[in-house]
Amino acid sequence: MAFITLDAHKLKSNFDFLNTFFKEQHIDWSVVTKILCGNKKYLAELLNMGISQYSDSRISNLKVIKSIDKNAQTIYIKPPAKGVIREVIKYADISMNTDFRTIKMLSKEAQKQGVIHKIIIMIDLGELREGVMREDFVDFYSRVFEMKNIEIIGLGTNLSCLYGILPNNDKLIQLSLYKQLVEAKFNVKIPFISGGSSVTIPLVSQGLMPKGINHFRVGETLFMGTDVYNSDTFEGMENNIFKLYAEIIELYEKPIVPTGELGTNLEGEEHNFDEEDYGKTTMRAIIDIGLLDIDMKHLDPSDESIKYAGATSDMVVLDLSDNSKDYKVGDLIEFTMDYMGIVRIMNSKYIEKRIVNVATESPATT
Questions:
Q1: Is residue 3 part of a domain?
Q2: Could you give the residue numbers annotated as active site?
Q3: Which of 36, 39, 208, 267 has its CA 20 to 30 A from that of 55?
Q4: What is the pTM of this model?
């Protein structure tokens, strides 16, 4: 059976790195846990690290976090749909919002449950994903300010996720200025300016982050050591916390080119083959994962001599060339993954999830 591993020691190393970094900058940060897809084993490991705040875009994942530690502070990080209002109030201490009608429903539900629900109002600074338009923001704030059982604790923005609009000093200064504006106009204090994410971490290192930005939401950099802004890895951070292992279930020398009339495969693709490959053979391995589990473009064999030959719903075919490593049926093939590859695998109920310290344990026997 195929399985994914999480190296707890390396994850803790990345957490300590970021925690020290943000403390030195006097910045609060929340761990975005959506890459873990609500896996209780992995979330429990994360909670043991002393993280104070958790963010997710799935209510079911926040529910798992609360089941592990009811005192964990949780943030729902997308505008709530009306069908999850009750659960948002129950399982999210804070939610990010952009719509007046939605906040009105949150207010009514918070009154029913007898709680004060905290919100962060998101402002669109050019990414054109979620966020109140800048010219409408002050009027929007004034209307929400009067709602019962709603406490506005922050302003925020999202950049880079949809169109790749990169954050810069100018955009983030705008966010800080909105804080100053509403504090002066409404005689309030706004504790959090949530303008930071994995992509904005390099701006802090370069001294380009406005001082008013005091809250970050970080997922990818914690779990992958990624410098998202520069498409690189941060020095001193681990980038192989997750690995995938799939078992060879068939291994034969076979022709490179199939025989018969060519049509389309299950994804509607047509294949063409080089004339020079006709009559040649190669060692082909089938492993026990498929397109239901993973998109192969997000997956790389650790052994660079292995090439991807194709996939169906439940099986992936690999080209081992002359099989110089002498792989056999039953052997495990190790893969590294990018962010979306990990999320796809974590969402598959057919892939076992394990926790290991790769440096000291064999993943095949854990």
A1: no
A2: 34
A3: 208
A4: 0.90
